């Protein structure tokens, strides 16, 4: 995880600090009755299916003229740039230059912007107001840490439908969140055709 401003504070802690209300920590009755829901998205179709499913089934039944009882945030976790190095003596070792790193970071930011733009289109189609948040780090760990620190009431994640072997080797974000997050986790699986 990245530390911000040279301190030991993580990016999640800084975001939590910035998003919490100032004062004695006691929110108004209206703030306390608002359910904080995060919907995690990445480039996969499974995550956008989960977003659309949540917009249709969880939030579509409230009156658009009234204040929503939900504080909905679409969250994208951008994995950190990790150059790969080979330990095998099969050829020259490739090191990431600062220019290469800058190019990758720019490409990551553009990718995150495209993902959030696609999510924004879906939310606009359903006429549901949401906030957007991009975090950096290991997606599994960042989601769990962030929902715990920011007192999120529900985390919605998609399922890519990995088989048992792939899930065991690659790990599953949805499985990790379901087992480690302190809030309820809704895993939305695409319908099989």
Written overview of the protein:
There is one protein chain. By secondary structure, this protein is an alpha/beta fold. It is 41% helix and 16% strand. The chain is built from 7 helices and 5 strands. The protein has a 5-stranded parallel sheet, with helices on both faces. The N and C termini lie far apart (39 Å).
What's the gist of this structure?
With 193 residues, the protein is of the alpha/beta class. The chain is built from seven helices and five strands, in the order H-H-E-H-E-H-E-H-E-H-H-E.
Features:
alpha/beta; 5 strands; 193 residues; 41% helix; disordered N terminus
The total of beta strands comes to 5
Compute the number of helices. 7
Give the overall shape, derived from the CA principal axes. globular
Distance between the termini: 39 Å
Structural class: alpha/beta
Helix amount, in percent? 40-55%
- Order of strands in the sheet with most strands: 3-2-1-4-5
Largest sheet: 5 strands, parallel
SSE string, helices as H and strands as E: HHEHEHEHEHHE
Mean pLDDT: 77
Radius of gyration: 19 Å
Strand content: 15-25%
Low-pLDDT stretches are 1-8, 13-17, 19-26
Layout of strands and helices, then pairs:
Elements (H helix, E strand, L loop, with lengths): L10 H9 L9 H4 L2 E6 L4 H13 L12 E9 L19 H28 L5 E6 L2 H11 L4 E5 L5 H7 L2 H8 L4 E4 L5
Parallel strand pairs: 1-2, 1-4, 2-3, 4-5
């Amino acid at each position: 995880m990245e530390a911000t401003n040279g301190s030991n504070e993580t990016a999640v802690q800084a975001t939590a600090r910035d998003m919490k209300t100032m004062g004695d920590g006691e929110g108004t009755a209206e703030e306390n009755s608002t359910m904080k829901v995060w919907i995690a998205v990445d480039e996969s179709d499974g995550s956008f299916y989960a977003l659309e499913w949540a917009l249709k089934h969880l939030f579509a039944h409230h009156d658009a003229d009234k204040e929503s009882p939900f504080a909905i945030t679409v969250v994208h976790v951008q994995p950190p740039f990790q150059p790969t190095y080979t330990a095998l003596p099969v050829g020259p070792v490739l090191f990431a230059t600062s220019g290469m790193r800058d190019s990758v970071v720019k490409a990551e930011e553009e990718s995150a912007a495209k993902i959030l733009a696609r999510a924004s289109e879906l939310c606009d189609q359903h006429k549901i107001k949401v906030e957007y948040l991009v975090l950096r780090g290991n997606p599994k760990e960042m989601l769990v840490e962030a929902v715990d620190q920011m007192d999120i009431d529900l985390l919605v994640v998609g399922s890519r439908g990995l088989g048992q072997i792939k899930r065991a080797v690659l790990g599953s974000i949805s499985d990790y969140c379901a087992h480690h997050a302190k809030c309820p986790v809704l895993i939305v699986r695409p319908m099989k055709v």
